[in-house]
Specification:
By secondary structure, this protein is mostly beta strands. 0% of the residues lie in helices and 44% in strands. The strands form two sheets. Strands 2, 5, 6 and 7 form a four-stranded antiparallel β-sheet that branches. Strands 1-4-3 form a three-stranded antiparallel β-sheet, with no helix packed on it. The chain is elongated, with a radius of gyration of 13 Å.
Length: 72
């Protein structure tokens, strides 16, 4: 099982909303917490995954793009 949850805070206490680009098909993503979780269905590489967060007032902030490699 793959499980990743980023940490983010807003200095004004505004509600944060997360988004994802290039989410693996086998994973779920929670826009309230940024949690990416799932069980890969086979071997493979999932590249250029990008998670961002915004308070709705400012431009989104992105984590660096990352890759998930599923191997035996």
């Amino acid at each position: 099982v793959y499980n990743f949850t980023p940490t983010a805070t807003d200095s004004n206490g505004d509600t944060l909303t997360f988004a994802i680009q290039n989410k693996p098909a086998w994973a779920t993503f929670n826009t309230s917490t940024g949690r990416l979780r799932g069980t890969p269905t086979g071997l493979g590489t999932y590249s250029n995954i990008r998670i961002s967060v915004t308070d709705g007032k400012s431009n989104p902030v992105f984590l660096p793009a990352f890759t998930i490699s599923v191997t035996r």
